[in-house]
Task: structure prediction
Amino acid sequence: MQIPFENPIYITRPLLPDLENVSGKLQDIWESRQVTNNGKQLQTLSQRLEEYLDVQHLSLFNNGTLALLLGLKALDLKGEVITTPFTFPATVQALDWNQLTPVFCDIDPKTLNIDADKIEGLITENTTAILAVHVFGNPCDTEKIQKTADKYGLKVIYDAAHAFGAKIEGKPIGSFGDMTMFSFHATKLFHTIEGGALVFRDGALGRKLDLLKNFGILNPEEVVLSGLNAKMNEIQAGIGLEVLKGIEEERKKRHLLKKMYEQHLRHIPGIRIITNLEYEQSSYQYFVIEIDEYQFGHSRDWLQKELEKFNVYTRKYFYPLCSEFDWYANLESAKAENLPVASTCVRQVLSLPYYGGLELQSVIKICKIFQELHADSEKITQL
Ligand SMILES: *Cc1c(COP(=O)(O)O)cnc(C)c1O
Result:
């Protein structure tokens, strides 16, 4: 019988750089006296990230949500955008703030990404774009999505908040579609505490994005468009440069943890690993499983509560579906009967503790707890 962990095991912990190095960075910033507005730290981080992500055009923002919101604005989209209900609220809220109507498309039961085969059937004369999410860092079917987009002249935007550093057949994740958003929130693999970036194909968008994130100010005398304040400051950028130094090691640690989880959970009936190592260049953002209530013997919700008794904290990520938000109640595409796969998966997914500082022994113990909880259910069915 497993006994509970002495201290709570949380779902994630931010990768924190060495405090002394951060102090050194702060000293540099203090000495420069430029603490925001396109300073040296931001320019350096921008360059480093272009290298790391292997992309040409990148623009930094104070968070991923505003990056996406202003990215959609820069593309000058109108009407309807086909997207996924299985995502973080920010994805669809970025559409809302642009007066764009989401059209929810069901998801692929294997990757939980938008089902590329179901997009075409949702296109109307008002459709202008597809907004897909590389959920949990597993890449979308970018080839099929692009094919559909090209056929109808649609823009393609990716929310890659979970996919920092991921690749598809060796190609960088940011090289697909017209635009890709990354989030650098503290819970993400790479972070700047709060922050985000856009990567885009058309270099000319860079100037427009610079205006959009800085009130549309062209020069001290001219304001040329209605923008927002969405700039990344020097402290964010400086910390990002320090975090970046630890990324490779963090990825290696997470790789081992994932292998350990896979090895010990694979044989338990009713548990499917969504973030499996099949994608070798995965971003190692989350470790997510799906629980088949009938095969496992218990529901996801029951399991989550039982794990808490062992001091293990998991998250129903994502839950609920974005299509269930009140303000979409009158959308035909938001109806559960039009989203059968998403409506099932949203009751089965569970994100488990996963971060470089998590000990291998803790992962093994968590897996043993799973085994016991499943074994219990076998006893019940035998009675
Ligand atoms: C974290 C996240 C966002 C929002 O990014 P912020 O930087 O927190 O604004 C958007 N989409 C997805 C899928 C996310 O996980």
Observations:
- Residues 63-65, 87-88, 90-91, 133, 159, 161-162, 183, 185, 196 surround pyridoxal-5'-phosphate (CB under 6 Å).
- Residues 360-382 form the longest helix (23 residues).
